[in-house]
Amino acid sequence: MLEKLKELTIRYEDLEAQLADPAVYGDGERLKAVNRELKELAPIVEACRAWEQAEARRAGAEDLLHDPELRDLAQEELAAAKGEAERLQEELKRLLLPKDPNDGRNVIMEIRGGVGGEEGALFAASLLRMYTMYAQNRGWKLEAVSVNETELGGVKECGVLIEGEGAFSRLKFESGVHRVQRVPETESGGRIHTSAATVAVLPEAEDVEVDIDPKDLQIDTYRSSGAGGQHVNKTESAIRITHLPTGLVVECQDERSQYKNKDKAMKVLRSRLYQMECQRRSAAEAAERKSQVGSGDRSERIRTYNFPQGRVTDHRIGLTLYKIDAVMDGDLDGIIDALITADQAEKLKGGGD
What we know:
Oligomer: single chain
Shape: flat
């Protein structure tokens, strides 16, 4: 670990020196890359310097133990410095864990009503609202790609693009089946029903990462329509793209411009193909070792929202919070922070592999 920290500190100092170079300021892309790497390394270097200071304090306190007049004070200082050094050492281990290469990406999120018919679709609409409010809380930008609504305001399926710092690193744990237990608005007898919706979180792929042959695409246009068949507009601006080799179908009808709808649909298609390739590559690794917080498979039940009891339970880490209204209003940081901590603990236990 010490050798790794030394390398990263030297690299950090080299990057700081590059910022003083006029040639770097003349190259926008290079300047951006230098600043990005500096930002990534800063927490590690700061923790390393604090750890070195704590170790120096500990060594100084140990020297003072030999002085009878200062022994009591030295013992207090030694205990404090030792505790601080151990805490920072654990923090450094966590910071040095291999990063998920997708953590800095934007997100394509897809939500589908599942078991429960109309109630499943209404719950999918509640989840869409929850993630919309969470994105607003974090200062992220959320744009609808497509929303297929029911007569009662539920969501059969929808896709949104979420742009912002750390979007994928925080939302990637949301993939899976979300179960709800509540009395449906459509239920006159007041009985509690169980229904579900599925969430898929995909990292947005860059153009250069997925090579799509135009000959492999079937592109259809149609008129956008809302719930009940009411036409949003009278031109054929909605786009449906079929990727013939895989059979993937992506639709976008959110924009009035056919060009904008096609651009959004291609983003979703590219991200789905990228995700398929990532899953193919990691299949063998995932079979060997499954993370404590789950595989992110959309068929895995990850969370239950129980409205009569006012609780939300995340089954992967056994966390239950009794603040369902706040959670449904986008207060998700408590759950997501706990999932990130559990994921890091699992990686540390496994030696960071």
